[in-house]
């Protein structure tokens, strides 16, 4: 594999026996011994193994040959820090052997970087006593857990850390006897440890699996439990949610879902859940949303904890979906694992799709596929429309490279093309193909071709031919429609948001399911597909037709301007997903120059009678992008604000501030979005009521807490009225809130302050400082994103990052994922070529290896935004003047 920087292949691990002892909480070190049963495939005088921040002490290799055995020892280690490998050199040559054991004594660090084996800081609830041995300092208590995906098992113990080097694992942990240890499998035995006050916890052996799925955790944990309805080998499976002490009741919403999802997927995939238990653990510091460790899934607290009285309802939806996503991985990713990281989409794209399928099963009233089109597919189309994007199946050379592929292409475009294919085949046929794929490859590794083979067997269709370009090629098409009486011609071409497609960019011909509605004399959706660059469809109803019905296809549609206007008057004939996708396409086409901003706004204006949360969200998102790019022009901004208020006037007039019991889930989300949009854009009545409620809260916090869903609308208005005081209040909320989402809501909100002095004096030191009263690295993106979306704060944020780059890099420590995400959210909202030149100049001499892919997409986004502003500024000023800009 010339395109992969991988281990030599002379050692094939079969089983690991891992023992960790001597955990020291002052210097955060530990000792370990790992015994690796392996095959030595050829004679060699060295063993190359993955390590990072791990110090080896002694290595002993026992080799069985016929009836005799040989033992070899070494303390000769060559560490390659960049490649995260250690070469163990022996004075004699190790013979090839089908049965060998490698025993390594080592020591390592319990780091604070949210990768490998690491510690998380937290503050237990008041009046909640912690176990005596729990590590603590003046500010925090600590728990410990692991995060090994993508390539960080090597940071906890020496191992052959590649996804296709699967093995079984025995894990034993020596821990304080008043704490709890968890791992992938149930506890096998507990007995006193070698040190006073400790116990040795040994776990059952795992199935064959990849190193990145191994997990353990140590802390002051408690749990709640439920059982699956189905029986597995005659027994119901215990499902537990674990938290640090005092938070366990916030895990009940997740626990209502997890057992049902296990049963659902066991039936749909035609393979019973393969482990004897399923644990969920809330981790206080976490890079992503969650991690699918087999049998011990770990979560960011806001992705798993929910308080019925204190949490924003949006987290009800988030938790239900994330739990489903992670449990889908127990089959798709864990039982069958991609062969190498270039096939990451096999894990993530599928788990995303399956997660929404399962969420819809439990919550049909949520309209989750409309949500998907609004939030998921639009995000995927956005990233896929920049020249610096990448194919779903993307070359991945090494560990640093893979971290940047955990993005909207692998997750969201991956899900989009799976959803498109499942819609084409029918969900039942699609799932039958998935079951074939899983059964053929269980406990092994697989490729995209293996999935296509299973789906082809189930459907009788050549899946590789129709799906190959979607996975192997970069980008997606825009279908440009030309009309003649009674017929249309549809032409596909590569879509770029910069609007500058060249011949070399447009070499792919996609299989495009048209989902066409509007054949004269017929009803329903025609399943015809476009398989050439251009095709004519005849017998078309001149009054009404549409492409991509229900937005099941991953592409843009460019209608003639008059047709788009007409569709704006025929919204009753469009489904919710149709409206969202058509508005999304109109916005992107205006952005790229295929259409114009006035045409977009005219179409969006037709949504003024709309009351569906997801449709109005898409409309407000579209206008919000225009406002974000052109809003530095005061006249344009004022007219756009008035336009937004007119757009939401009708639903706002009836929505009110109260949340009736038993209200529809989406209705509650609509209220929050309407009040937020109204307050931010200058609605006098909403602003007055928001300020009244905020002042009442300041006067008597105990008795005047706002409804959780009203916090953001109220806080955003208060930020405008009194920036310094409101930021001080939000920082205090960040420190003291008992709500699971309190810290996230506070950080995400305070970044929208328009006072440059507050940004410079208060928020930037708070964001980038290293003390206990500063934002932890894993949460920096919440505040940075708000600042970056803020026209006043954006340049100040970038100036600070330029002037203090060493400090920025030092804060994220050894976690490239955090640095990659920070660069993305902080810089991609610029809309001028001066900022682009500044970014290019600053990073020209820097090591950008941890975020080079992301940096290129950021620069492409800025190019697109700058081109859009240059192209449409004059016509938008004319539009504003015609609407009475003053």
From TrEMBL:
GO terms for biological process: peptide catabolic process; proteolysis. The keyword Membrane does not apply. The active site is at 326 (proton acceptor). Keywords: Aminopeptidase, Hydrolase, Metal-binding, Metalloprotease, Protease, Zinc. One of its GO terms (molecular function) is peptide binding. Its cofactor is Zn(2+). Residues 253-470 form the Peptidase M1 membrane alanine aminopeptidase domain. Its EC number is 3.4.11.-. The keyword Protease applies. The record marks 411 as: Transition state stabilizer. Zn(2+) binds at residues 325, 329, 348. InterPro entries: Aminopeptidase_N-like_N, Aminopeptidase_N-like_N_sf, ERAP1-like_C_dom, M1_APN-typ, Peptidase_M1, Peptidase_M1_aminopeptidases, Peptidase_M1_dom, Peptidase_M4/M1_CTD_sf. Binds 1 zinc ion per subunit. Residues 12-213 form the Aminopeptidase N-like N-terminal domain. Residues 544-863 form the ERAP1-like C-terminal domain. GO terms for cellular component: cytoplasm; membrane. It is an enzyme of class 3 (hydrolase). Pfam families: ERAP1_C, Peptidase_M1, Peptidase_M1_N. Belongs to the peptidase M1 family. PANTHER family: AMINOPEPTIDASE, PROTEASE M1 ZINC METALLOPROTEASE. This is Aminopeptidase.
């Amino acid at each position: 594999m010339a395109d992969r920087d991988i281990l030599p292949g002379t050692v094939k691990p079969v089983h690991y026996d891992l023992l960790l002892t001597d955990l020291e909480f002052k210097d955060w070190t530990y000792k370990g011994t790992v015994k690796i049963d392996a095959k030595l495939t050829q004679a060699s005088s060295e063993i190359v193994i993955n390590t990072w921040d791990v110090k080896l002490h002694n290595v002993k290799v026992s080799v069985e040959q016929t009836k005799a055995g040989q033992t070899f020892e070494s303390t000769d280690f060559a560490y390659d820090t960049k490649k995260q490998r250690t070469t163990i050199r022996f004075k004699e040559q190790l013979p090839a052997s089908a049965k060998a054991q490698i025993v390594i004594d080592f020591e390592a660090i319990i780091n604070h970087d949210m990768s490998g084996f690491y510690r998380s800081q937290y503050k237990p609830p008041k009046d909640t006593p912690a176990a005596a041995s729990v590590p603590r300092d003046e500010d925090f208590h600590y728990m410990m857990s692991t995060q090994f995906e993508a390539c960080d098992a090597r940071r906890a113990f020496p191992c052959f850390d590649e996804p296709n080097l699967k093995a079984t694992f025995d894990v034993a942990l020596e821990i304080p006897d008043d704490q709890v240890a968890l791992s992938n499998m149930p506890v096998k035995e507990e007995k006193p440890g070698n040190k006073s006050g400790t116990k040795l916890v040994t776990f059952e052996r795992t199935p064959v699996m990849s190193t990145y799925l191994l997990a353990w955790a140590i802390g002051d944990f408690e749990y709640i439990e439920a059982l699956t309805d189905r029986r597995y080998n005659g027994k119901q499976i215990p499902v537990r949610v674990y938290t640090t002490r005092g938070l366990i009741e916030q895990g009940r919403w997740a626990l209502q879902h997890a057992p049902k999802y296990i049963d659902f997927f066991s039936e749909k995939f035609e393979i019973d859940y393969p482990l004897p238990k399923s644990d969920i653990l809330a981790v206080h510091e976490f890079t992503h949303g969650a991690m699918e460790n087999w049998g011990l899934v770990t979560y960011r607290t806001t992705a798993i904890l929910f308080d019925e009285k204190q949490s924003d309802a949006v987290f009800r939806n988030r938790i239900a979906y994330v739990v489903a996503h992670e449990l889908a991985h127990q089959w798709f990713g864990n039982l069958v694992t991609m062969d190498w990281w270039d096939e990451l989409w096999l894990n993530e794209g599928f788990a995303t799709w399956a997660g929404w399928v399962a969420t819809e099963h439990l919550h049909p009233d949520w309209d989750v596929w409309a949500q998907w089109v609004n939030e998921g597919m639009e995000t995927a189309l956005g990233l896929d429309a920049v020249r610096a994007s990448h194919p779903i199946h993307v070359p991945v050379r090494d560990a640093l490279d893979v971290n940047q592929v955990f993005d909207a292409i692998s997750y969201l475009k991956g899900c989009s093309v799976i959803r498109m294919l499942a819609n084409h085949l029918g969900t039942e046929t699609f799932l039958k193909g998935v079951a074939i794929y899983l059964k053929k490859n269980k406990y092994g590794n697989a490729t995209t071709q293996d999935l296509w083979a299973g789906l082809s067997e189930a459907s009788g269709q050549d899946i590789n031919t129709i799906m190959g370009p979607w996975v192997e090629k970069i980008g997606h098409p825009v279908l440009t429609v030309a009309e003649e009486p009674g017929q249309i011609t549809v032409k596909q071409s590569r879509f770029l948001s910069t609007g500058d497609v060249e011949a070399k960019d447009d070499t792919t011909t996609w299989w495009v399911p048209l989902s066409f509605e509007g054949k004269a004399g017929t009803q329903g959706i025609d399943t015809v597909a476009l398989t050439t660059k251009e095709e004519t469809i005849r017998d078309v109803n001149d009054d009404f037709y549409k492409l991509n019905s229900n937005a099941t296809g991953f592409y843009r549609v460019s209608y003639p301007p008059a047709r788009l206007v007409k569709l704006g008057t025929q919204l009753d004939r469009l489904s919710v997903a149709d409206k969202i996708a058509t508005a999304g396409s109109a916005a992107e086409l205006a952005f790229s120059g295929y259409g114009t901003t006035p045409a977009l706004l005219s179409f969006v204006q037709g949504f003024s009678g709309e009351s569906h949360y997801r449709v109005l969200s898409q409309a407000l998102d579209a206008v919000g992008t225009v406002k974000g790019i052109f809003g530095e022009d005061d006249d344009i901004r004022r007219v756009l604000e008035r336009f937004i208020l007119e757009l939401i006037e009708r639903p706002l007039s009836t929505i009110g501030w109260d949340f009736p019991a038993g209200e529809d889930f989406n209705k509650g989300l609509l209220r929050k979005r309407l009040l937020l949009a109204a307050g931010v854009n200058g609605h006098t009545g909403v602003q007055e009521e928001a300020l009244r409620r905020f002042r009442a809260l300041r006067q008597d916090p105990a008795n005047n807490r706002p409804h959780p869903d009203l916090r953001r609308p109220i806080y955003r208005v208060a930020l405008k009225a009194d920036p310094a005081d409101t930021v001080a209040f939000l920082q205090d909320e960040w420190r003291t809130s008992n709500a699971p989402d309190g810290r996230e809501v506070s950080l995400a909100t305070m970044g929208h302050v328009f006072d440059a002095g507050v940004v410079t004096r208060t928020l930037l030191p708070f964001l980038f400082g290293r003390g206990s009263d500063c934002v932890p690295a894993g949460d920096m993106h919440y505040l940075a994103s708000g600042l970056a979306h803020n026209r006043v704060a954006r340049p100040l944020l970038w100036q600070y990052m330029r002037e203090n780059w060493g400090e920025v890099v030092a804060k994220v420590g050894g976690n490239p994922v955090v640095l990659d995400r920070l660069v993305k959210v902080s810089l991609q909202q610029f809309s001028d070529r001066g900022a682009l030149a500044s970014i290019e100049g600053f990073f020209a001499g820097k090591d950008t290896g941890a975020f080079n892919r992301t940096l290129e997409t950021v620069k492409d986004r800025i190019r697109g935004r700058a081109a859009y502003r240059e192209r449409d500024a004059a016509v938008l000023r004319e539009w504003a003047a015609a609407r009475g800009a003053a």
